Amino acid sequence: MSTRVKIVTGAEELRHLCNEARKRGESVGFVPTMGALHAGHLALVTEAKKHATFIVASIFINPTQFAPNEDFAAYPRDVENDIAKLATVGVNAVFTPEASTIYPPGEETRVRVGRTAAPLCGISRPHFFEGVATVVTKLFNLVGPCTAVFGKKDYQQLAVIRRMAADLMMPVTVVGHPIVRESDGLAMSSRNRYLSAADRERALSLSRGLAKASRAFKEGERRSETLRSLVDDEVRVASDSVDYVEIADPETLVAIQAGQPVGERALVAIACRIGATRLIDNEVLGENG
Ligand code: AMP
Fold first, then answer.
1. For ligand 1, atom 12, which residue shows the shortest CA distance?
2. If you placed Cys at 258, which of 13, 66, 225, 243 could pair as Cys (CB 3.0 to 4.6 Å)?
3. Under DSSP, is residue 59 helix (H, G, I), strand (E, B) or coil?
């Protein structure tokens, strides 16, 4: 199925479009992305269609979530193909603003995030979640979605946004979608296109490590240091540097220290670099999918 997609670049134009949809009796679902879309992104759209009738996707590489030494300039851009892909899954409108539309001259307000943003990616990317929370707030305020869908691939991001939506009493239901993987286990990511064939092979260490921890957990292993080592051993030999391999509480994201057993569910989260490409992956042990 392919729908006619409305392309919107203006903020007020987007607000008007969504208001008109609601006046017609439609419910608005929203999927924010940074483009270079793959099947993982498209699965979020399909999920959004279960919750709403009028689906908006955004393609915006948000400058405030990148540090000066990160890959903002080199982040893959492929808007025409992205729009064609979104049409195949029935998106009604695509918002592709300029940076100056989202951050016009004189703007200065940021959403301050809390404890959920502090561990894991918050350590190596201290301003990342403030940038994410700010842009998502702006986008929510323009779209006014009843439902917004985010991927569990960015587990901490989903947790920060859930927290923000609850704390700031935003009238939106935040839905998390399972990680979509390639057939060999690699979590789909826009950044995977940077990987050479040899690097891609090395990148399989992330999902392999998670699978080992998952198997051990299913067989009854509850020592956090043992579960962590199973993942760490795989990832450390294959990658150029490791930001973290952590076993953490799936709700608070607080690390479970060595010597502390894990409970019924535990988050295993990885961030590392293969060549110049930063990859993340995770699994919640004790949870299906
Ligand atoms: P991005 O374009 O990377 O900012 O991602 C936009 C949305 O797609 C975020 O909610 C991500 O968590 C989600 N996403 C990216 N990759 C995947 C994947 N492999 N599976 C599920 N969701 C994903």
1. 151
2. 225
3. strand
